[in-house]
Amino acid sequence: MRDITREAEQFVSGAGDGLLHVFVPHATAGLALIETGAGSDDDLLSAIDDLLPAQDKWRHRHGSPGHGRDHVLPAWIPPYASLPVIDGRIALGTWQSICLVDPNGDNPTRQVRFSFLAG
Q1: Whole-structure pTM value
Q2: At 76, which CATH number?
């Protein structure tokens, strides 16, 4: 899990009002709006392990053992988010951060695409 809020803020800095769309073009990744640093990020990762255990039960079998669960993750944590931007600032809640979530250790390189729709 990686907090990408700072990168998103830099992208919209000075952009005015509109919508920021964040997209992760990978089959095993999602975007979560979550509090970080107070244990919630670790709680999310534990919940993923509980709900989608990295066992050899998955039909999708290429990659490391249990990798099939990584391909199911985006059904619960979608690979996109659209966020309001007001006066060039993302209108997140007090404790919200934008986090890339990807338990797939087989491919550590990920892209995140930002786009802005001016209002």
Answers
A1: 0.90
A2: 2.60.120.460
Cβ-based burial of 94 (10 A; exposed 0-12, middle 13-18, buried ≥19): exposed
Per-residue pLDDT of 49-84, as tens digits, reads 999 888 878 787 677 777 788 888 899 999 999 999
Q: Identify the burial level of 39 via C-beta atoms within 10 angstroms of its C-beta, where 0-12 means exposed, 13-18 middle and 19 or more buried.
A: exposed
Q: Which domain holds residue 44?
A: 2-118
Question: Which CA distances in Å does 42 have to 19, 48, 60, 82?
Answer: 29, 10, 26, 24
Q: Tokens for 42, please give them.
A: 């670790």
Could you tell me where the beta strands, DSSP code E, fall in the chain? 2-3, 18-23, 30-34, 80-86, 89-90, 97-101, 113-118
Q: Please tell me the total count of domains within the chain.
A: 1
